[in-house]
Write a structure and sequence with these properties.
Radius of gyration: 21 Å
Structural class: alpha+beta
CATH topology: Cytidine Deaminase, domain 2
Number of domains: 1
CATH class: Alpha Beta
Strand order of the largest sheet: 1-3-2-6-7-8-9
CATH architecture: 3-Layer(aba) Sandwich
Strand content: 25-35%
Order of helices and strands: HEHEEEEHEHEEE
Number of helices: 4
């Protein structure tokens, strides 16, 4: 038993725990859970907009330091072209959030979603600027991209992103 304890604590014995200087890395990866309702609404909104991009806000909660839960979404009015959508209309967003409070919805905005109809999931330069504005309000805000054209027969083409540097680099 003492040998197992030494192995687990790196105190020598067989299996000394790796090369000197190795330190365990803490897993800081986050998970985003999207409810069936929210996913269906994103896909339906995206399909309705083809061939244009559409966008909306995601409602939910930051469960803990590593978990984001999206329970619902609502569409935002905007005009999109090819590979980008215009930024969120702040007046509309404020009115929607006020209305949600009035009807007793406890969720907060945890990010935004938009569609890339037929060309996969990635962030364009305009998308990165939009995400920067969301992260300025909440550093944990998430950008979700869904491709309603490539999402067929039970296979949803979707990805989540957050920026990792002030110069606009991104990580998915």
């Amino acid at each position: 038993m003492d040998r197992i304890h030494r192995m687990l604590t790196g105190m020598g014995g067989a299996g000394q725990g790796g090369p000197p200087g190795d330190t365990p890395q803490v897993d800081t990866a986050e998970q985003i859970y999207i409810s069936s309702l929210a996913l269906l609404k994103m896909l339906k909104h995206g399909r309705a907009g083809v061939p244009m991009e559409v966008m909306g806000l995601m409602l939910g909660e930051f469960v803990d330091d590593y978990t984001v839960r999206v329970v619902d979404v609502f569409a935002m009015p905007q005009s999109g072209t090819g590979v980008s959508v215009e930024a969120v209309d702040p007046v509309f967003q404020t009115k929607m959030l006020d209305m949600l409070k009035q009807v007793g919805r406890p969720e907060m905005v945890v990010g935004w979603y938009h569609s890339h109809p037929g060309f996969g999931c990635w962030l364009s330069g305009v998308d990165i600027n939009t995400q920067q504005s969301f992260e300025a309000l909440n550093a944990r805000a998430v950008a979700v991209v869904v491709d309603p054209v490539q999402s067929v027969k039970g296979k949803v083409v979707i990805d989540a992103f957050r920026l990792i540097s002030p110069t606009g680099g991104w990580l998915r």
